[in-house]
Amino acid sequence: MKKRKTKNENENSISIFTNLPPFSPSIPENSETLKPSSMVVIIHPNTCYRGCCTSDAIPLQLPSSSYSLLSPIAKGSESTVFEATLDGRRVAAKKPVLSTSDDLDKFHRELQLLCSLDHRGLARLVAAHARPPNYLFFFEFYESRNLSEKLHLEEWTPSIQQSLVISLELANALKYLHKLGIVHRDVKPANILLDRNLHPHLADFGLSMYKKDLKHISVENWKSAGKPTGGFHKKNMVGTLIYMAPEILRKDIHTEKSDVYSFAISINELLTGVVPYTDLRAEAQAHTVLEMSYTEQQLTAAITSQGLRPVLVQPEAGVPPSLVSLVQKCWAPNPSERPSFDTIVEELETIMKDVVKTENMETYDALPSFNSLDHYQNGIKDIPRFEENLNWMSQGEQLAKNISNIENSNLRLWSTSQCEPLHYQPTLSCGSFATCGRRETMEDTHFLLPQMCNEKDVHAFGIFDGHRGAAAAEFSAHALPGFLQDLGYTSSPSEALTEAFIRTDIAFRNELVLHSNSKRILHKDWHPGCTAVATLVLRDKLYVANAGDCRTILCRSGHPVPLSKDHVASCPDERARVIKQGMDVRWQMDTWRVGQAALQVTRSIGDDDLKPAVTAEPEITETSLSPDDEFLVMASDGLWDVLSNENVISIIKDTVKEPGMCSKRLATEAAERGSKDNITVIVVFLRPVSTAERIY
Ligand SMILES: Nc1ncnc2c1ncn2[C@@H]1O[C@H](COP(=O)(O)OP(=O)(O)OP(=O)(O)O)[C@@H](O)[C@H]1O
Ligand SMILES: [Mn+2]
Ligand SMILES: [Mn+2]
Does the Cβ of 145 fall within 6 Å of ligand 1? Predict the structure, then answer.
């Protein structure tokens, strides 16, 4: 592979120059084998391997020693984006999947286009590697993730000023693209990257085209041009569909006015914080489309023929009416009625001036210009916080201490000492691994109590996966073992588990009420929750209690045995139960979701806006252990989203038999396979593992 000389895109090839090209010389990776003594050997860095892409400023072939790919940040249908370093600098490396020669042509087209762009509102290409066998784009790294994640994962609530800055800078970037004759064709929050100061940078030029080439591109070509629909990934398809202009949905020609439409949908999402078409407070019209079983076709029909749009931002809460009507103009059904970005920029600047004046903030004249608003933006307050100095972990801990005040010293947990002689006694060893993964915040917690209350035959483990904040998970990881222990002196194992879940839920919601009354919680609409799974091993009996979508499996004779059921609204039994208890369950975007909060899980601790339908009562399984039982795996849904039960068993089979290492290996594998969530894994071996097995 290394030294054959045929010109094939899949092989290494090096050009030799005696004169230095304008870019600083770098010695190619395999220079030792090729370097003649009197010649400087150098890759022509500013031209791609084919010679079709050139840039004065951007190196297009790199020595492999100059960069290294660190962890993956995102995996799309067409590429994987990595955090990477390039000459010591933090960058984002986009590695496209290139399987056909068409893909290669597309890579070169995208590279040519990127080389011609230079605008602060666009994701900046800093280098590329366009030499077989490696094809990579290197972009400046934007630290605050994309606007979609910022709004919906982090639940960021921007101020009106922040929204205006983002809208205006984005409009300027699109104005620039359109001036160059380029239509972006994929404007959506997931493609708007935010830097540290929350300035937007439009990214993902995978679908961008010169207007002159667009004449005959219909949606069919758009789909086959790869991208979300290529693999017909339902989630991605709908995710993109909702930003697509009616003319595109009708398979007409894409123009720059289609970008204006997508801009309007995105800006409205920024201003409302609501994913288009998912808000249950929508007016009647939207309801008909959002009924349980609406399909892609129905949504398409409603957008194109009935003029359905997302719920428009309301001119309350400081949103100027002129901004509301600008959004409306930009999503007009008729493309020719939509303003151009020249007009949009002008209008946004006027709105910005008015807002600055009325808010009596720094005066407009003091600002350098609206194209460089760092100064202005720095004056904007931090992200509003929901709570102040509340440590939910210590709240839970305190509670657990209070419970165990009772003097129980001469009682035994679940009377373990009185059991009749055993058929089988498992030998336990446990380990865990927890990672934030691609999320910015960690909302999973867990506990390991290999010898609960110093009882050598009592083992308890638990995982909590928080949502709408980490509060419930942090609280429960301490409170639940406290309750469980207390109940262990009086109740049967299953009763104790059920009761511990219920008491934890009540205690957490009480704390929440207490703190809202004392004004330590600043946001009245804050309803944090968590799913929970807890396992109790008492000699040869194994009890698993589950509420939500964490999961526990047992490996028995080499095969997975599920010990818990996922409580999600897509499960018909659970859906029926929730509906019966008076809570709305609707199909929203990609799946069934509960209530206004659009929660996917149907059982949890916390979530007091959804009680009692979203119950904290767990389902319990009881299993008798035998020598066939090898190990247990408990994990949050971040693992199960991307790995099947069988996958998990086979990964453990070829991992060193050390529970901590197995847990880490599983979490790492899940992250590599694109899990977007926090991942927590607990592995418990149930048999002694021989030294040899531990090593191999
Ligand atoms: N320069 C960057 N800095 C930080 N994160 C980035 C950067 N570029 C991309 N990302 C992350 O990777 C994600 C995917 O990037 P991009 O849209 O370019 O890839 P894609 O494969 O075309 O994705 P899609 O599946 O949406 O088409 C972005 O939404 C963002 O979260
Ligand atoms: Mn993208
Ligand atoms: Mn993309």
Answer: yes
What DSSP line would sit under 303-343, residue for residue?
HHHS---PPPPPS-TT--HHHHHHHHHHT-SSGGGSPPHHH
Taking only the tens place, the pLDDT of each residue in 414-429 is 866 555 666 788 999 9
Cβ-contact 311, 265 below 8 angstroms: no
The single residue listed with the structure tokens 């190619």 is 28
Q: Please choose, from the candidates 435, 441, 588, the residue with its C-alpha nearest in 3D space to the C-alpha of residue 145.
A: 441
Stretch 300-310: mean pLDDT, rounded?
88
For residue 444, indicate whether it is catalytic.
no
How far apart CA 509 and CA 113 sit, in angstroms, is 54
Q: Measuring CA to CA, which residue among 19, 17, 14 is closest to residue 30?
A: 14
User: Is 240 near ligand 1, meaning CB less than 6 Å away?
Assistant: no
Smallest CA separation from ligand 1 atom 17, residue: 204
Report every protein residue that has its C-beta within 5 angstroms of ion ligand 2: 191, 204
| pLDDT value for 524 | 64
**Pairing of β 125-131 and β 585-588:** unpaired
Q: Residue 91: nearest ligand to its CA?
A: 1
**Average model confidence (pLDDT) across the chain:** 80
Q: Is 362 helix (H, G, I), strand (E, B) or coil?
A: coil
DSSP state of 633: E
Nearest CA to ligand 1 atom 12: 74
More confident residue, 346 or 251: 346
Encode pLDDT of 65-114 as tens digits: 889 999 899 887 788 999 999 988 999 999 998 888 888 888 999 999 99
Query: What's the pLDDT score for residue 404?
Result: 66
Name the strand (E) or helix (H) holding 134: strand 134-140
Q: Is the CB of 229 under 6 A from ligand 1?
A: no
Tell me phi and psi for residue 562, to 5 degrees: -70, 135
Q: Which residues pair with 220 in a beta bridge?
A: none
CB 21 within 8 A of CB 44: yes
DSSP per residue, 270-308:
HHH---TT--TT--HHHHHHHSTT--HHHHHHHHHHS--
86 touches ligand 1 (CB under 6 Å): no
**Where do we find the tokens 């059991």?**
419
- Please give the Cα distance from 234 to 219 (Å, whole number): 16
In 3D, which of 167, 179, 120, 183 has the Cα closest to residue 330? 167
* This prediction's pTM: 0.51
Q: Can you tell me the ipTM of this complex?
A: 0.96
Nearest one of 649, 657, 656, 664 to 689, comparing CA atoms:
657
- Residue having the nearest C-alpha atom to atom 4 of ligand 1: 142
